[in-house]
Model the fold of this input.
Amino acid sequence: MNRRQILLAMAGTGLAHAANTANATATPTQNLVGNKLLDAYVRLSGSFDDRLIIWWMDGKQYAVVNGKSQALFGMKVGMFHRFFQQTDGNFKVAFFELTYFTDLDSGVLLKEFKNPFTGKTNRVRHTRLGPEVRLLTMNGLSSPDNPMVKQYSSSLGPARIINNQVWVPTSVEGIIKFPKPTAPEILLSIYTTINGNLSDALDRDKMSVPCSLAFNNTQPWIPWMGLKDHPGHLMGVANGCKMEAMEELPEDYLACAREVHPRYINDPIAALSRQTLLIREST
Done:
């Protein structure tokens, strides 16, 4: 398994960003727990049928050095999913991710990056993770089946409810230890909160309902940046929403994807066909 596959296994669909609401106090609900919470989460973030579900987000990547952050480039994120409920109530999810780094001012796809720490110009490599299949339960995403992934943990909830609004945080944390003794450990911390209407989330007559997404992560320097042992790390912050049709994606994201990953963006369902077949054969 290569680095890209391992990062996917760690990232999964799991992304927790604290949700704040002015003049209100968010408190956990004692009723939205266990499988009821899982069902609400899937109805909001995914679907009870196998339609294509897109997570679109737009944000920035920051360098954090000695506690000080500095915006480096924009990021445009698309995650493409199909959800399949299992007989035990859990869900298998086939998905892949296409993420693009962009110029902070113009929003144009970056091909080269003038590195403020080295003074060098780096060739930018954009991100494709997957396609892959992961198991989603009321405890979050199951641990990847890979011996290099250590100290893995994932969580789903607890839900926070104010009036008819519900927030559900998720997290994925872990360490990747490569066999080569000189290879550095990769620490990953990925957090997301989804937000939507509580009445929608609990409505069993609806397969899928709208939600917004808030994402935050920390990770080591991306290899193409050439920073290696330079002190500091990256922090990503993004926001977006769930979509159910390719036509809903912003044109600036589609332009990036068509240029870098045309096969995946032209037909996401086809790109997930092998994973979908594996899920159906095992269900």
Observations:
- The longest strand covers residues 68-85.
- The helical segments are 3-11, 34-45, 198-201, 251-260, 262-266, 268-271, 273-282.
- The CA atoms of residues 31 and 279 lie 31 Å apart.
